[in-house]
Amino acid sequence: MIPLPLLFAAPAYLRPEVSPDGTRLFFLAPDDGVLNVWTSPVGDPEAATAVTRDRGRGIRTYGVCHDDRTLFYLRDDGGDEGWRIYLVDLATGAERCATPFPGIQARILAHNRWHPTTVLIGLNRDRPHLHDVYALDLPTGELTMVAENPGYLSWIIDTDLRVRGGTTMRPDGGTTVHLDGATWLEVPYEDVMTTRVAGFARDGQTIYLMSSIGTDAGQLYAVDVATGERTFVAGDPAHDIRQVELDPLTHRPQAVIVAGDRDEWLLLDEDLAKDLARIRAELALRGLDAEVYADRTDRTDRLWTLTVVTGAGPILYYLYDRPAGELRYLFNHQPELDNYELARMEPFAFTARDGVPVHGYVTWPAGRERRDLPAVLDVHGGPWARNWFGFDEQAQWVADRGYACVQVNFRGSTGYGKHFRNLGAKQWGAAMHTDLLDAVAHLTGTGAVDGARVAIMGLSYGGYAALAGAAFSPSVFACAVDLCGPSNLLTMLAAGAPYRTPLTAFMHANVGDPETEAAMLWERSPLSRAGDITIPVLVAQGANDVRVPRAEAEQIVDALRANGVPHEYLLFSDEGHGLTRPENRETYYTAVERFLARHLAPKGS
């Protein structure tokens, strides 16, 4: 079996990028077991040295500034999401906190080559629920307020770092886009998740808009700021755009990536098409059928770092030299995994009970006959998110232990157009739940999965789904694992960090309004039917979670205890929404592994 630390400890390498001046390579790697930022000459990653010295939860978000001297990274305290911005002088090694204010959350908003010593950041320093815009001067560390927030959820900023507007949320869950002091676009509720400003061209006169208004899937348009004339750029009739690839100099679109079962690139630029064809041909010679993502941080656009995802092996990283047409392998995210046979993630589809097509992925145990296998239904969080094709450490772990890992993009998931997403509105514990049941029925109906040995587990919304499975459908599942999932929708909607309050109308439109739909929300809450839970449940929670507070776990644990239901409860004092520290992840997955082995074993064993 693959040892748990290889899957759930800190990766050996992560997120490489070339410095803006093209001379150095930066990446994340463990230092004393904790993820930190390392750097090396661009051609010699083995000569890397650590730049940061975090000894807490590890660094996940960092960047190298265009002054060619400063590195920034974000860090919170024990998972509380109170992000602070830290700056490291790459010449001296000196480090300082740029936002040393108690009880705030900092956000990186904008930084680019044209303003190399300025970073625009968001700070909720004056009002906990709103982030104002500040200019951070890198040489001095001075912060200057640029714009006071009039109620925006997000800001619109052009390449000259001018604040051009922002987005507000209406009471019905729709949004209004404000640009240059005027109302620019009214976005209906049903289009909110598939309509947003993607950025400005360098001239500041063309704005790129991803929009599903008047169509089902999000499309990319170029809009003339002066006249409002809209020109179609690219899109797919069925699937939303996952990513827009912009020219680093002109900021004009060169490609879009469309989110199907596998990624599809719609290419708009001949030079980019040639580069991508050259890369894919070279990868094919190496036997790789993979998704490719380019990070173009080198100002000259000469050197790219590539992330290559096969769905059946570690994440691969390459350096691509455009003028030379050369592809150089750097490393993969966990080299020791090369010693093990990994399973392959495969797309699957089925028709739900009401005729809606639903897609997902199954990672089957390698080398096992697909007949009467135990299975783990791994439910994604969000729920306004989705599962993607690629390396999934949890899916690999499940398959390696002999279970089929089933991941369903149930209605409400993103990527499949607004109609499919909006079918999930106010369907927590209802049609979103029955999509999961229908996936199990589909796979058991093929004979591949043993219907008596199916577990349900997940994080966040996935944790809610696990508790709903235990409370609403205990005959379908053998056991349930909830990580940071809400047990009572009413108390969940009433809680949360202050900076999440601008999203209240969205939550009410998509989950339910406590003022007018309290009975429905209680009925859809697993806690309301805790007395119906008969299967074993494992509950895990981060004590500092600001999205799903600790009380959500403890109220369902209290009910399980009172009802004599077999259960386990793990509370992590130094975690928030999910688990980050390698030692906590190992503790959690060791407990879950024992739990699944006990409850998914063949009868009589």
Task: Please outline the helices and strands.
Blueprint: H1 4-8, E1 14-18, E2 24-31, E3 34-41, E4 49-50, E5 62-64, E6 70-75, E7 84-89, E8 95-97, E9 106-110, E10 118-127, E11 130-137, E12 143-147, E13 154-157, E14 163-169, E15 175-179, E16 182-187, E17 196-200, E18 206-211, E19 219-224, E20 230-234, E21 241-246, E22 253-259, E23 263-267, H2 270-285, E24 291-295, E25 303-309, E26 316-321, E27 326-332, E28 345-351, E29 357-363, E30 373-379, H3 393-400, E31 404-409, H4 418-422, H5 431-445, E32 449-459, H6 461-472, E33 479-483, H7 489-494, H8 504-510, H9 518-523, E34 537-542, H10 550-562, E35 567-572, H11 582-599
Parallel strand pairs: 30-31, 30-32, 32-33, 33-34, 34-35
Antiparallel strand pairs: 1-2, 2-3, 3-4, 5-6, 6-7, 7-8, 9-10, 10-11, 11-12, 13-14, 14-15, 15-16, 17-18, 18-19, 19-20, 21-22, 22-23, 24-25, 25-26, 26-27, 28-29, 29-31
Describe this structure in words.
- The protein has 605 residues and is of the alpha+beta class.
- It contains eleven helices and 35 strands.
- The strands form eight sheets. Strands 28-29-31-30-32-33-34-35 form an eight-stranded mixed β-sheet, sandwiched between helices. A four-stranded antiparallel β-sheet has the order 1-2-3-4, with no helix packed on it. Strands 5-6-7-8 form a four-stranded antiparallel β-sheet, with no helix packed on it.
- A hairpin with a 2-residue loop joins strand 10 and strand 11.
- It starts with a helix and ends in a 6-residue tail after the last helix.
- The model has no long low-confidence stretch (mean pLDDT 96).
